[in-house]
Write a structure and sequence with these properties.
With 210 residues, the protein is α/β, with parallel strands linked by helices. Helix content is 26%, strand content 24%. It has one domain: Alpha-Beta Barrel (TIM Barrel), CATH 3.20.20.
Length: 210
């Protein structure tokens, strides 16, 4: 469920922010780096393994004034932000991204790529979902491709997506957390045989940080 077409949402000056926090990036290329996290509510992909299902219904979260979010982000020493969700590209991110860049903050976007890109980002992590595949134009803009692996069929999905990204895009296979005991050996073996891929682990869950 999404909010109605409030003009403030359309302009991106107010957005349904589920949570904000300062932590370390736990997965993908920027693992271990400090960043401020902005999680927007709203997603229709319906992935069964999603670990933030409470983000799906945007109407659960009040609209937040984005100028205040930008100000909070800029207070932290890392000067880096991860915009995630939900699916953040449900919204116009132009205003948010411009405000962050004006404050000297680097912007890392995490998206399924199912919606048109908005906002100027420094890094795009594309995590494609079978239920709502990425738009063709998003593939070439991705800096990293991160595919969640819960079973062997997801390896086929990963290979379907790999040829669509640019040559400089970094390729990651990320074991699905609830299946990690059985799927990590499968992913490790697969990467040994297909070394164009690297493994991404959800390190924040191992060290128990947000």
């Amino acid at each position: 469920m999404q909010h109605t077409d409030d003009h403030r949402i359309l302009e991106g000056t107010w957005l349904p922010v589920m949570e904000e926090f300062y932590s370390l990036q736990g997965e993908g290329h920027h693992t271990g780096k400090a960043a401020y996290f902005i999680r927007l509510g709203g997603c229709d992909n319906g992935c069964w393994w999603c670990d933030v299902k409470e983000s799906w219904n945007a109407t659960l979260y009040p609209l937040v004034e984005i100028d205040k979010v930008i100000a909070r982000t800029a207070q932290f020493p890392a000067k880096a932000v991860v915009i995630t969700g939900g699916e953040p590209l449900y919204y116009n991110l132009d205003y948010l991204c411009k405000g962050l860049r004006d404050k000297g903050v680097k912007i890392f976007l995490e998206t399924s790529g199912s919606e048109p890109l908005s906002g100027r980002c420094d890094w795009i992590c594309l995590s494609p979902k079978k239920t709502s595949p990425p738009l063709p134009e998003i593939y070439k803009l991705a800096n990293e491709l991160k595919v969640i692996i819960a079973d062997h069929s997801d390896l086929e999905w990963a290979e379907d997506n790999a040829p669509k990204v640019g040559k400089s895009c970094i390729l990651y296979l990320q074991p699905e957390w609830s299946a990690r005991e059985t799927i990590i050996p499968v992913v490790v073996d697969y990467i040994k045989r297909n070394p164009k891929w690297a493994i991404s682990l959800q390190s924040h869950k191992y060290i128990r940080i947000p």
